[in-house]
Design brief:
The complex is a heterodimer of chains A (about 110) and B (about 110). Chain A has about 110 residues and is mostly beta strands. In chain A, about 0% of the residues lie in helices and about 50% in strands. In chain B, the strands form 2 sheets. In chain B, strands 2, 4, 5, 9, 10 and 11 form a 6-stranded mixed β-sheet that branches. Chain B has a 5-stranded antiparallel β-sheet with strand order 1-3-8-7-6, with no helix packed on it. Chain B is mainly beta and about 110 residues long. The chains are: A mainly beta (about 110), B mainly beta (about 110). Chains A and B meet through strand 4, strand 5, strand 9 and strand 10 of A and strand 4, strand 5, strand 9 and strand 10 of B.
């Protein structure tokens, strides 16, 4: 049981490049989310999905797109990377239903030059 | 954006000491969660609190959900070296939207 798997673990991009961060979970969780973590600010929600075909914006969605074509996968796309998007990105998943704890991946460390 | 106010931001203690950290919010949450993050890894859930006033323990960890539903604390008793890391509180909004505190970085001197 791999849990939540994020790829790549590290990436360096140039300003203006595009990139997709991958997230996959094998727990058949309905809910999946993307967070970014910046120094001294904890984690902030970017986008989330309550099931295949359904996505919604979180606290900091600008500059990011998501899609949920399958229950297992929830990719995060940067269409035109900016230095302000340098961060550590975490994907999380959880079962449907209230109060279910979220399981986090190990993160993708992204640097935009 | 909304964030929880977590304090202290950092702690430097001796091995064996007890630790206390807390979170406050201007908003009500129906679920409070405490996570620990080790370097290079994602947050790992330590304790989940579901009812106002609830006091829950997990080994040497004890957490409480404030009566007003706007605060929570986490205590660690008899700290050991593996307790080093960053601790985050989080409030759950709706089904899955987590709002995080800024984190408390715990350093332990042996």
């Amino acid at each position: 049981n791999a849990g939540v798997t994020q790829t790549p673990k590290f990436q360096v991009l140039k300003t203006g490049q595009s990139m997709t961060l991958q997230c996959a979970q094998d727990m058949n969780h309905e809910y999946m989310s993307w967070y970014r973590q910046d120094p001294g600010m904890g984690l902030r929600l970017i986008h989330y999905s309550v099931g295949a075909g359904i996505t919604d914006q979180g606290e900091v969605p600008n500059g990011y797109n998501v899609s949920r074509s399958t229950t297992e996968d929830f990719p995060l796309r940067l269409l035109s990377a900016a230095p302000s998007q340098t961060s550590v990105y975490f994907c999380a998943s959880t079962m449907a239903g209230s109060n279910q704890p979220q399981h986090f991946g190990d993160g993708t460390r992204l640097s935009i030059l | 954006g909304q964030q929880l106010n977590q304090s202290p931001q950092s702690m430097f203690i001796q091995e064996g000491e007890d630790v206390s950290m807390n979170c406050t919010s201007s908003s009500i949450f129906n679920t409070w969660l405490w996570y620990k993050q080790d370097p290079g890894e994602g947050p790992v859930l330590l304790i989940a609190l579901y009812k106002a006033g609830e006091l829950t323990s997990n080994g040497r960890l004890t957490a409480q959900f404030g009566i007003t539903r706007k605060d929570s604390f986490l205590n660690i008793s008899a700290s050991i070296p593996s307790d080093v890391g960053i601790y985050f509180c989080a409030g759950l909004q709706g089904a899955q939207k987590l709002v995080f505190g800024q984190g408390t970085r715990l350093t332990i001197n042996p």
